[in-house]
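In response to a reviewer's request, we include the raw inputs and outputs for one of the modeled complexes. The two entities were modeled together in a single run.
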Amino acid sequence: MNIIICVKHVPETSEAELRIDASGKTIEKTGLVYDINEWDDYALEEAVRIKEKQGGTVTAITIGPDDSDSTLRKCLARGADKAIRLTDQKFTGSDAYAIAKILHSVIKTLPHDLVLTGMQAGDDGNAAVGPILAEMLKIPHATMVKKLELGTGIAKINRELEGGLEEQLEVKLPALFSIQTGINEPRYVSIMGIRKAMQKEIKVVTLADTGLTEADVGEAGSWIKIEKMYVPPVEKQAEFIKGTPDEVAVKITEILKAKGLI
Amino acid sequence: MTKIFVLAEHRQGQLRDITFEMLTKAREIAEETGAELTAVVLGKDAKELAKPLADYAKTVIAVEDAKLENFNSEAYKKVLTALIQQHKPALVLMGHTSYGIELAPRLATALNLPLATDLIDLAFEGDTFTVTRQVYGGKVNAKATARKAETYLATIRQAAFAASKPAAPANGQITETPSPLTEEIAEKRFLQYVLPPPGGVDITAAEKLVGIGRGIKDQANIPMVDDLAKTIGAVLSCSRPIVDKNWLPTDRQVGSSGKTVKPKLYIALGISGAFQHILGMKNSDLIIAVNKDPKAPIFSFANYGVVEDLFKIVPPLKNKISEIRTQKA
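The model returned the following structure tokens for the whole complex.
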């Protein structure tokens, strides 16, 4: 089984206070900690589990500058066999469509029974690269996959719908699946694994090697172009309770008591 | 006249809320641009589903086919490709839902038309299609423009727009269009719906909920919060990351992929307030949120907020409430 996994190196922003940078088109990135995109982490685990069960190879692919190597190293340490990083100044400004074209340029040259992506990325959250890539590769796909069972030439998968409901589908292989969080429990990497991964090669590919032109990538090759980013204005705000933890506890207790909730 | 298409979303015979939210927003755009609002419904009983849509849209295109009984993105792609090529609408709206996410990017690629996803706002500014979407987990908004095209595709975030019926029903004309599908989709087949395993707790029935999120940090910290919940007489619930980590069962999850709750009291501890979670709890009577980040979106929905580490607040709060309860008893 030849498994391709597409991963993204993203800033961890859930507990960070974000500011817009001087260009007005992106956030100030200094000081932010980067890691593998959360959804991709589950996709990586799923790929490695399939390989462990059935044999085969896992190839991890990312698009990004040098520092994305740490996410690829993580993939290698967790059980991926090969890693490819696509990088070029010209890729800047690529939307989901242009990103899918770049990924497609490499994946089409590799044997692939299964292509896995995260369901979305934690930074721009398009939830679109997977299905676009599947259409380009001319293979069936399913998104928001919460369960994946492989048979011969076929996969039985559960997709997450709304309100706790799922749907079960049968999809012919080769196929692309975009993975939802919670499908498995991603493992921790051993020190040994990280050491071994440091010695593995990361193949670097630039625009010239992809067969694409400048017009295919970046803003020129995208469907949509970011004009500006801004921190949304606060329309409504909670009444903040201030004081020491003890004082706060007293005030909350008073509110609950006044409302007859305790 | 140019058209705006809204793809009606339905499951198990029921039209879903997002359909009417999209129709409401699309009506506004249609009025501004002079376009004709058209609802498109595909299904086994499409003509029946078309009836309520006719109150909202000038025309309803119904494609009825037994092969469209359950949603299948490949079947939808084929039917919509034919309809879009025939009618050349200026705009096609789909939900940013489990169905729209599955369908829209692939449809756009097949048609070579630009797509913008998960929109919280959209407009034509002159002949430029301009969209607003959230990035970095809802902490930042991005305004973007699409490359020029005859037709733009978009997926719309759930609950981004409130649904409202037009003052006078549109009395839309329902037109049945024959299905272009000649055979079942072989590469991707629907098998069945799978319900979540029945759990012991129904959080939707609880009068009071104490919800935990990422800020809880470790499974070992849950008993401390559960203690607080028991003291208040509340049930413990959570946001998605807690279920993903298997720290609490699925039936405790509040949000678009979990349960929608409307308790008298909702205490959110270490929940930042991703919109999927907000969708599930924003109608609670009283919301109190504790979070370290003063800019956490949850504070825009809470009645009371505390900017503090939840671990500093939970123990004294539990003690104070215990005292009162003991006095009462």
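As requested, we also summarize the result in words. The first strand of chain B starts at residue 3 and ends at 7. The longest helix of chain B spans residues 310-328.
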